[in-house]
Amino acid sequence: EVQLLQSGGGLVQPGGSMRLSCSASGFAFSNYAMTWVRQAPGKGLEWVSIITASGLSTYSADSVRGRFTISRDNSKNTTHLQLNALRVEDTAIYYCATSPVTGSRYRNDFWGLGTLVTVSS
Amino acid sequence: QSVLTQPPSVSAAPGQKVTISCSGSSSNIAKNYVSWYQQFPKTAPKLLIYEDSKRPPGIPDRFSGSRSGTSAALDITGLQTEDEADYYCASWDTSFSVRFGGGTKLTVL
Q1: What separation in angstroms does the CA of A87 have from each of A11, A35, A68, A91, B55?
Q2: Residue B60: what are its φ and ψ, rounded to 5°?
Q3: What is the DSSP string of B13-44?
Q4: What backbone torsions phi and psi does residue B83 show, to the nearest 5 degrees?
Q5: Set of chain A residues whose Cβ sits within 8 Å of the Cβ of B46
Q6: What is the pLDDT of residue A41?
Q7: Fewer C-beta neighbours within 10 Å, C or N terminus of chain B?
Q8: Do A114 and A93 touch, CB atoms closer than 8 A?
Q9: Which residues of chain B does A114 touch, with a Cβ-Cβ cutoff of 8 Å?
Q10: B13-66 residue pLDDT tens
């Protein structure tokens, strides 16, 4: 059974930092790209970032590029999202999700339960 | 503003058919496959359709997808009350990013 266990999140002040983690089990983690998607309160889904299976390539949305960094540790079946220079508008539930392929056939097969990040003074 | 455009809401009676559209551009849907996700309140999204029209295991064949040009569509036939949820389309973009639609709220009357 695929499981994505998310940790991190909580309340942080504007300008602050936070690290989100996603621990995977039940599948060959090192063969999958991993994605972070967020959802602001009452809003739709917004893609945040993706890291390829090898970890050699990452891509991020314009809204977070230069502030958020995605990484992974295939020896620990874990992916992280480092959030820096946080803004009020970054307040959202952050989901990690599996991506068996990147590029044209992109999809997210399995999703974590999500973790709430609240940016407020 | 989402790059992929979906109607904010659709509705239909139980047993009827509903279509949710997803409009993109030459940099996403025209060149790349579309996936669809179903999300119930306060839960994580779930993959419903991938590569335009394929269903993951366990997804009923009442759900079907298609793509043509810069648009895609999700059809749900034989509507059931438990289909009431939010639906999102998504597609890879040539800018090395992923575009999601703004989401469509389905109401089963």
Answers
A1: 12, 21, 11, 8, 38
A2: -60, 150
A3: -TT--EEEEEE--TTTTTTS-EEEEEE-TTS-
A4: -80, -10
A5: 111
A6: 96
A7: N
A8: yes
A9: 44
A10: 999 999 999 999 999 999 999 999 999 999 999 999 999 999 999 999 999 999
